[in-house]
């Protein structure tokens, strides 16, 4: 049974306008501190490398504008976690920053273990033609390994499956904080630095204007043992979450070790979050009986029909 309903939306999150301050630090920089509050968050600790902050790297460090930012959250009981952040760039690419507590890659592109090396995922990029996507590592400029480009699955004229992400439990995700502080800096030695700060601040607000931050709340009983499966869809036009296919997509072995389920797989899909007037992102969450061979994994996704039947034969 697949259920497609959103439970809540993070529409009451807000930026504390009165809390915004411009200060001058000791390194010759002007700094704007912007407090952002999450009303249903619990975590007090704010990570500087949080996926909540990463989309603003172009604004914070380089002053490059972004078109739109969107967050997706996941909830169980009274606890909430960040699935990840999406950014739509001026080049019309879509970036996904995973909200994971871990980012280290343990397998090379040819599926060999690289435990003696340090490689960390920074983000995933979907090209503007929706025909390919790739993984970008934090170490890309020095020692980063390169993964081949992959193709999203075109499921209909208006629905594309970008990728699937599997994790053993919600504890793998970043917990939703009560607040998050964004820092925007500009060199005060440069001409028009206050104007530059004002420009960056304006883009900061514009990229979040009318953004939806869906919270997908899990209400079903969970099979045990199980892993959590996230399907990331790109929707064109006015396509809604109710237009998603009933087919379930998730990574097959060796990443996953699925088991037969007697009562079927239950899923929940969030409301689409628009990135442009014509493209929205939508996430469907499922709990699948079985386990993972890794702490987390990404894949192009497999249809859970014939392939999974063959797996159990």
Using brief descriptors, characterize the structure shown.
313 residues, mainly beta, eight-stranded mixed beta sheet, eight-stranded antiparallel beta sheet, 22 strands, globular, disordered N terminus
What does this structure look like?
- This protein is mostly beta strands and 313 residues long.
- It has 3 helices and 22 strands.
- It has one domain.
- Helix content is 9%, strand content 39%.
- Strands 1, 5, 6, 7, 8, 9, 12 and 14 form an 8-stranded mixed β-sheet that branches. Strands 10, 11, 15, 17, 18, 19, 20 and 21 form an 8-stranded antiparallel β-sheet that branches.
- The two termini are 23 Å apart.
Task: Summarize the model shown.
By secondary structure, this protein is mainly beta. It is 9% helix and 39% strand. The chain has one domain.
Which helices and strands occur, and which strands form pairs?
Elements: E1 8-9, E2 14-15, E3 21-24, E4 29-37, H1 57-62, E5 66-76, E6 79-89, E7 94-98, E8 121-126, E9 133-137, E10 153-154, E11 159-167, E12 174-175, E13 179-187, H2 193-208, E14 214-218, E15 226-236, E16 249-250, E17 256-258, E18 267-269, E19 273-274, E20 279-292, E21 297-299, E22 302-303, H3 306-312
Parallel strand pairs: 5-14
Antiparallel strand pairs: 1-14, 2-4, 3-4, 4-13, 5-6, 6-7, 6-12, 7-8, 8-9, 10-11, 11-15, 11-21, 15-20, 16-22, 17-20, 18-20, 19-20
Rounded to an integer in angstroms, the radius of gyration calculated over CA atoms is 20 Å
Succession of helices and strands = EEEEHEEEEEEEEEHEEEEEEEEEH
User: What is the mean predicted local confidence, pLDDT?
Assistant: 79
How many domain units? 1
Percentage of residues in DSSP E strands: 35-45%
Number of strands: 22
Structural class: mainly beta
Measured as a percent range, the helix fraction is under 10%
In the predicted model, the low-confidence regions spanning at least 5 consecutive residues are 1-9, 106-110
Secondary structure tally, helices? 3
Largest sheet: 8 strands, mixed
Principal-axis shape: globular
Distance between the termini: 23 Å
């Amino acid at each position: 049974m697949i259920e497609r309903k959103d439970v809540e939306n993070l529409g009451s999150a807000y930026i504390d306008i009165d809390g915004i301050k411009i200060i001058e630090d000791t390194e010759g920089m002007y700094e704007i501190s912007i407090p952002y509050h999450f009303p249903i968050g619990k975590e007090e600790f704010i990570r500087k490398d949080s996926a909540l902050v990463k989309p603003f790297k172009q604004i914070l460090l380089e002053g490059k504008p972004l078109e739109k930012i969107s967050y997706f959250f996941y909830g169980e009981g009274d606890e909430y976690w960040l699935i990840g952040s999406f950014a739509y760039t001026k080049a019309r690419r879509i970036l996904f920053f995973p909200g994971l507590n871990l980012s280290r890659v343990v397998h090379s592109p040819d599926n060999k273990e690289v435990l003696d090396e340090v490689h960390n995922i920074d983000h995933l990029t979907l090209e503007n033609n929706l025909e390919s996507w790739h993984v970008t590592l934090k170490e890309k400029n020095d020692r980063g390994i390169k993964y081949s480009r992959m193709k999203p699955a075109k499921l209909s004229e208006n629905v594309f499956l970008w990728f699937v992400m599997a994790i053993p439990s919600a504890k793998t995700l970043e917990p939703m904080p009560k607040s998050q502080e964004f820092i925007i800096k500009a060199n005060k030695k440069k001409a028009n630095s206050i104007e530059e700060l004002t420009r960056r601040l304006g883009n900061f607000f514009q990229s979040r204007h009318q953004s939806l931050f869906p919270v997908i709340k899990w209400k079903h009983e969970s099979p045990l043992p199980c892993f959590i499966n996230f399907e990331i869809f790109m929707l064109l036009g006015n396509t809604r979450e109710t237009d998603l296919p009933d087919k379930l997509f998730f990574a097959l072995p060796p990443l996953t070790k699925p088991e037969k389920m007697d009562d079927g797989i239950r899923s929940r899909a969030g409301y689409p979050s628009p990135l442009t007037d014509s493209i929205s992102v939508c996430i469907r969450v499922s709990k699948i009986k079985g386990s993972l061979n890794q702490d987390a994994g990404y894949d192009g996704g497999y249809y859970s029909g014939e392939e999974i039947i063959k797996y159990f034969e």
